[in-house]
Structure formats: structure tokens, C-alpha cells
Write a structure and sequence with these properties.
Elements lengths: L7 H14 L5 H16 L7 H8 L7 H21 L25 H11 L5 H16 L17 E6 L3 E6 L4 H16 L2 E5 L5 E4 L3
Antiparallel strand pairs: 1-2, 3-4
Length: 213
């Protein structure tokens, strides 16, 4: 950097202060940029170059391309700020590291694992919560592309389950026979919890009512 430009460490503090004044928290970016400046200082470099930024972004060896792209994008923002102060600072071009597919591989639960989840949900209290989570696990296991289903009383049908998928309207998804008894049990539990029962008598002789939760 030129003699009129501030040192990298001071420039980093100014950059973070400016961005935070605009409403950005930059918790992760501040940590990464601090590491980047330390990397440059250890190499005796007082400016940002594309080669140094790329060399740091690809550390450690074997890291995913998605993580490397994140590291480089953080440096690009800082370098663009420095370039406004000192035109000799190089700003790494966008797309220098292809991010690739960073989605996690979905995990498919086995029948035994699904059964264990349903059995564990039976221990929840109150019993309506247990029935709700047992039903939810069963629905997720048999539904077709239903990540969240809201069932109504009229949706419990013998051969199909009407699922209202969030932001996708209504659709009918074929359901196995397995969740049928669970749905009927949850429906019965719901109505039992809605029915009040007398629990005690007040001093005046009138009954007080509690719901059986």
C-alpha cells in the first residue's frame, strides 16, 4: 500500500467500524479478516493482492470449495474498500473459486429408526403432545415430498391423506395403512383433551372444571 494509506490492521478496524455502522454484525467476517491480515503480516506483505488472497482462501488444504469461496468473498469486500483508498490494491475477481454444491446429503431413516422415534415420542407429556409428535413422525415417513403437513379432521380418509404443504396449496398424497390407526388415535386424544371434566367442588358447592392435560 502507498505511504498515505493506513496499515492493514488499522484499515481493517476502520472497515469493520464502517460496515457495522451500516447495520452489519460481521462476527464471522471480522474473525476471518483478522486471520487474513495476520497471514499477510506473517508474510511481510503490506497490501492485498489477488494471489495472496487466493492462497489464503484455499487454506487449509482439503477444505470444501464452498468454504473457500466464502473466505474469498470476505476478502473481496475488504479489498474493494482498500481499493477506494489505494488504487494499487488488487480486488480478486468474482467467481475465482467455484462454490459448487454445498448442500448436505439427506439422511434417510430406516424403518427401525422411525419406529424408535415414534416409541420415544410416546413418553412426552401431556399425552396430546405425545400423540401429536407420534403422528407427525408417521406422516413425515409416509408423505410424498411433504416437509410440513397440517391435517384437519376431514383430511383423515381411508386411502389418501390430504396434506396442505406450506406455500404450495393442497395436494393429495398416497399414504400407507400404517399411519391410519395413529391418526385416529391422535384425533381421539385431541377430542378427549377438549372435553372438560369435573375435578373438585368449590366451598359454595359448585363444580370447577379442568381440561385433562
Amino acid at each position: 500500500m502507498t505511504a498515505s494509506a493506513p496499515p492493514l490492521r488499522d484499515a481493517l478496524e476502520d472497515y469493520l467500524m464502517l460496515r457495522r455502522a451500516l447495520g452489519f454484525k460481521l462476527a464471522s467476517a471480522a474473525r476471518l479478516l483478522g486471520q487474513f491480515v495476520s497471514y499477510l503480516e506473517a508474510r511481510g506483505t503490506s497490501t492485498v493482492t489477488t494471489s495472496d488472497a487466493l492462497a489464503w482462501a484455499t487454506l487449509p488444504a482439503g477444505a470444501s470449495s464452498a468454504w473457500q469461496a466464502i473466505r474469498l468473498s470476505v476478502v473481496r469486500g475488504f479489498a474493494a474498500y482498500l481499493h477506494g483508498i489505494d488504487p494499487s490494491v488488487q480486488v480478486p475477481p468474482a467467481g475465482l473459486i467455484r462454490r459448487g454444491n454445498d448442500r448436505a446429503t439427506p439422511y434417510l431413516y430406516s424403518d427401525a429408526e422411525i419406529g424408535a422415534l415414534i416409541a420415544a415420542a410416546a413418553g412426552l407429556r401431556p399425552r396430546l403432545r405425545a400423540a401429536t409428535y407420534q403422528t407427525l413422525v408417521g406422516l413425515l415417513a409416509v408423505s410424498v415430498a411433504c416437509s410440513s403437513c397440517a391435517t384437519r379432521n376431514s383430511a383423515i380418509m381411508p386411502r389418501a391423506l390430504l396434506c396442505r404443504v406450506l406455500s404450495r396449496g393442497s395436494r393429495s398424497a398416497p399414504a400407507a395403512r400404517t399411519p391410519g390407526p395413529r391418526l385416529r388415535s391422535a384425533r381421539a386424544a385431541r377430542f378427549r383433551c377438549r372435553t372438560p371434566r369435573p375435578c373438585s367442588r368449590s366451598p359454595a358447592g359448585s363444580r370447577s372444571w379442568l381440561r385433562p392435560y
